[in-house]
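May I ask for a single protein's sequence together with how it folds?
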Amino acid sequence: MRTAKRYKSVRISSLRRSVAVLTAAATTLVITAPSHAATAAATQVCAGVNTPVIVGTPHPDTALNAAFADYQNDRTDPSHWTGADAVYSAPMPDGSDVFLFADTFLGTVNPDGSRSPTVSDGGTTPFINNSFVKWNARGFSTITGGTAADPEAQLPPPDSTHWYWTRDGMVLNGTLNVLYAEYKRTGTGAWDFAWDRNVVARFAPGHLEQPIDVTQVPSAANIQWGAWLTRAGDYTYVYGSEDLGAHKYMHVARVNGTDLRKPWQFLAADGSWSPTESASARVNGDGGTSVDVSNEFSVVKHGKVYVLESSLSLDPNIYLSYSCSPTGPFVGRTAVFSTPEFGATGTYGNPNVFTYNSHEHPELGSDGTLVVSYSVNSFANTDLYKDASIYRPRFADITLG
């Protein structure tokens, strides 16, 4: 089972430094900070178990944010990671942590904080659809496919019209198992693409440059599996999102044991487990409504409750909901943290900047404290060339009592 404990093998304090922010411009858009007083009024999660209380004020994790900023701006290696989204992580048997990313910029960042456009846009910056970054006591190192001179995605696409975006990963049976969503091009426009199927790739911990094998997993019900993985009892639980655009709904599957290539079972509307993917039902939340999530979220046990951490489409807030079971229902949804970078009132003063896909990193937290990440991006591609700092993960700490 994934549990929350402090990750010890990296001296975060040695990577501390001030992180520069831009002055927010005046705007008519007002983003209200979440109120934490609401969590003081206990809601029952299940019989005899109340929702946790938020202790103090959730806040940015300055050490982790500074560590990734330092690595992004390290100009000694012309082929290393300089920004990415889809910020999953997996603790490894050797005590290191491997961060699993989707769309990734490589190369270097200029002294003024800008980067060259990508090769496809006429510049020199390599851009790939998935990568790993390993973190240990010696610092960060980038892992991709291909070569330093000609890098390729960690999981290369089957052809030029398809690509893989990374989902969650976990070490199972001594190998790193990573779920990926495969997408395909449907036209020539920037948004002409669609989800195609789900696969799991297995990597040997000492040889992360290429997978041992790639296996298709259930993909017939328009559910993007792999938003989260967790162990509970005899099962590995796999969480997925049913993506309907503005709304995305939570689904749960499970595998008996630790081999994701074995038959899956799907949580049906009556609470039973079905071998048929089409029987998978949306998980319920407050008032019996379906839980609306993002493409990425997390479900981690803290004390007696499972904490669902998620964001929503075009919403700066991070939300927590609670259940006494890994399968829900998840109740007591509360906005606990507002991402400071979002929108015209954010730290970039840029209405094109948005945040998305938040989830927890249990191995980086401590008892009662959730370390969560989220991605930052811009609707204007050129913003990511002018200011490379926009496109990198951010972390925040939330303490439960």
